[in-house]
Amino acid sequence: MLYELRTYTVKPGTIGDMVKAASTVSRDIRKDDYGKLEGYWTTEIGPLNQVMHLWSYSDFAERARLRGELAKNPRWTGEYIPLIRPLMVRQDIRLLNAVKAPVAPASTGNIYEFRNYRTKTGGAVRQWIDVFTAALPAREKYSRIVGLWQTEAGQPNEVCHIWAYPSLNARVEARANALEDPVWQEFLGKSGPLLEEMHSTIMLPAPHSPLQ
Prior knowledge:
The chain is an alpha+beta fold. It has helices at residues 15-30, 60-71, 74-84, 124-139, 168-179, 182-191, and strands at residues 2-10, 36-45, 50-57, 88-100, 111-119, 145-153, 158-165, 195-205.
């Protein structure tokens, strides 16, 4: 399975227009016929004026075929693209291989956190994934992970993971409790030397997002 995370930066004040176009016109045209929509969010804390949407395909060939078919859809080019083109500032794409495929939280009404880490070169990304997945059962005593990926293209030597929390306060509590867990403390000691950068973005699910 291939995952694609698309991040669109839009002009200030136009997030609502982007989400409306995506949740109505785009969904009516695309459905899940041109790739499956896994999640769609707006950024709340971190980089602002962004929407992030996660899609899945069976492989690279299916992605190329379906996106080619979508580009030929007259409703896509004639109805949706003209709506969003004036809003757009920048588009970024990550192609991702799942280490842990996305799993919906048990309840809805969540906030989401997207964390992306750039590791050192020379195999550090694989080492980080190994120590992280070994410690993950201890971490998930405090909050459940939604998904974990290694970036295939767009950002080399990168891992991405998404978490869901009932609220920002619940996030603070879960992370504070995890920091007191000896297994997680051991992981942090191993993780730090493997990393170059760590980034976090708090996201809110759009009304049409499968992950709520």
